[in-house]
Design goal:
The chain contains 7 helices and no strands. It is mainly alpha-helical. It has a single domain, classed as Cytochrome c oxidase, subunit III, four-helix bundle (Four Helix Bundle (Hemerythrin (Met), subunit A), Up-down Bundle). The relative contact order is 0.19.
Length: 211
């Protein structure tokens, strides 16, 4: 049985049709994710307009070193994911395997850095509650958005790492041919996680330093 025949599932008559279906389904799913994050971004925008001073003061307390470091990490992971997809198209199995491993490791590195950042935030008391250190109206609300949006992003990234790890294991066991549309589907999801972080960077780390 050829590799192409191994990845074709019912009811698709051909691999191109199946690839189109996978791409369409993933884009449809990503649209729902955009709506979800769009709600968070809309809420953030409304309250930032209502409490501009508090949001600026709150944002000045985020650690830009952590934010920029994680931006570099996750953008590099998107590069390795894109290379993996391109290598799969060129039937470069070893390159695909290495790039998938690198992508998962970059994702884990992002979570480790974020863990250190969360630890510092907690030590400094920037957790919304009765002992929150900033008294400017809106500052605590900013940090509420910070925790919610970064935590939701981290959950999505964790799911992405699991998906990439699954691809890596299946590829290593030769159970997932390089012609499978699964590589493209996972890559689309991974790039969405990357893009969301690129949006979060200015919202959470840069606004307090641009005024």
């Amino acid at each position: 049985m050829s590799e192409t025949a191994r990845v074709i599932n019912e009811p698709w008559p051909s691999l191109p049709r199946q690839r189109e279906a996978v791409t369409f389904a993933v884009w449809l799913f990503l649209a729902t994710e955009v709506l979800f994050f769009g709600g968070l971004f809309l809420g953030y925008t409304v309250y930032r307009w209502l409490y501009p001073e508090g949001f600026l003061i709150g944002a000045q307390e985020t650690d830009i070193v952590y934010g920029v470091s994680n931006t570099a990490i996750i953008m590099t992971s998107s590069l390795t994911m894109a290379v993996a997809v391109r290598a799969a198209e060129q039937d470069m199995r070893r390159m695909v395997f290495r790039c998938l491993i690198a992508t998962a490791l970059f994702g884990l590195a992002f979570l480790v850095v974020k863990g250190f950042e969360y630890y510092d935030d907690i030590i400094r008391g920037f957790v919304p509650g009765p002992h929150f250190p900033l008294h400017q109206t809106g500052a605590e609300l900013f940090w509420t958005f910070y925790w919610v949006m970064t935590a939701v992003h981290a959950i999505h990234l964790t799911i992405g790492i699991g998906m990439v790890a699954t691809l890596t294991v299946l590829l290593h066991r030769r159970k997932l041919p390089l012609v499978s549309p699964a590589y493209e589907g996972v890559a689309l999801y991974w790039h969405l996680v990357d893009i969301i972080w690129v949006v979060l960077l200015p919202l959470l780390y840069l606004i307090g330093r641009a005024s």
